[in-house]
């Protein structure tokens, strides 16, 4: 059995999916020819209008335009806007989101209260953290 190795250049993987590919056998040929050429895919029926696949015209087809130059520029602009700008704007948006759970505000408020209590000479936390007149305790009978 012959081993067939098909070597494709960069960007030709799309071409393989759409068109007929010719591969050169890497084994010793049995005939007089120096390399056996075989078909990797069966020939497909061409369209009636004589249209050629964009992958045949431009192996590096990105799907933006049939013109290779316009296709490449549109791809570059699309990736620049889609990735670079999205990362910058997305990162800025995430950086300026409001504080989750207001943790930053709570810390600033606690520091302000501590500074005020130190200035007034009061302990940071009093022995009666809650006002004892507002606490309702159950009677001895209910316990």
From TrEMBL:
<keyword id="KW-1133">Transmembrane helix</keyword>
<dbReference type="Pfam" id="PF10183">
    <property type="entry name" value="ESSS"/>
</dbReference>
<keyword id="KW-0472">Membrane</keyword>
<comment type="function">
    <text>Accessory subunit of the mitochondrial membrane respiratory chain NADH dehydrogenase (Complex I), that is believed not to be involved in catalysis. Complex I functions in the transfer of electrons from NADH to the respiratory chain. The immediate electron acceptor for the enzyme is believed to be ubiquinone.</text>
</comment>
<comment type="subunit">
    <text>Complex I is composed of 45 different subunits. Interacts with BCAP31.</text>
</comment>
<keyword id="KW-0999">Mitochondrion inner membrane</keyword>
<keyword id="KW-0679">Respiratory chain</keyword>
<feature type="transmembrane region" description="Helical">
    <location>
        <begin position="77"/>
        <end position="98"/>
    </location>
</feature>
<keyword id="KW-0249">Electron transport</keyword>
<feature type="region of interest" description="Disordered">
    <location>
        <begin position="32"/>
        <end position="52"/>
    </location>
</feature>
<keyword id="KW-0496">Mitochondrion</keyword>
<dbReference type="GO" id="GO:0005743">
    <property type="term" value="C:mitochondrial inner membrane"/>
</dbReference>
<keyword id="KW-0813">Transport</keyword>
<protein>
    <recommendedName>
        <fullName>NADH dehydrogenase [ubiquinone] 1 beta subcomplex subunit 11, mitochondrial</fullName>
    </recommendedName>
</protein>
<comment type="similarity">
    <text>Belongs to the complex I NDUFB11 subunit family.</text>
</comment>
<dbReference type="InterPro" id="IPR019329">
    <property type="entry name" value="NADH_UbQ_OxRdtase_ESSS_su"/>
</dbReference>
<keyword id="KW-0812">Transmembrane</keyword>
<keyword id="KW-0809">Transit peptide</keyword>
